[in-house]
Hints:
The longest helix has 15 residues, at about 5-20. By secondary structure, this protein is of the alpha+beta class. The protein is built from five helices and eleven strands, in the order H-E-E-E-E-H-H-E-E-E-E-H-E-E-E-H.
Amino acid sequence: MRGKTAEEVALQHIIERLGKFKPRQRWWRRWVKRSAVAIILRELNDQIEVLMIKRADREGDPWSGHMAFPGGRMDRGDITGLRTAIRETEEETGIYLEKAGHCIGRLSDIVSRPHSGRQPMVVTPYAFRLHTAVSIEPNHEVAEAVWIPLSFLMDPEERQTMAWGNGKLTLTLPCYFFGKRRIWGMSLKMLDELLGLI
């Protein structure tokens, strides 16, 4: 029996830490709009990679063109946020997580502004581990899907900053540039919490 590689040990470490982790849950989330996303991890060529999508450009969508995780708004038929993440991932990427992998834990709720209205929206990230190879078939909501090595995200030299403006307000925010793709905002918050467990 062969010994585990450093990457395999690291993934097992993530699973163990997620198992002990107590995510922050917004107790009032049942009374507001809710969404859920899937943070999908896979092992390939002795590396751990995470799947991200670039959302298609759509007029009126505040997250148009952003790098994100597969996911979306909870429907009335979704019993749990986990069901939402699984359903939305299949719709957006063609990956059926209940067959290709399994949930290894969840991260903290994030409060975001919704597409419309003043009521906040709570987004819940769920982490999954793939145990079989998958092919990605993006739907019209997805411009592209890309696997990003965790080693890239863990390299402090890859961490950069960006200027973000809203009216007269300008802020300097953290980000990554993976090629021409910019990772920031809510997605970066989720990644930071995940990487903080390692």
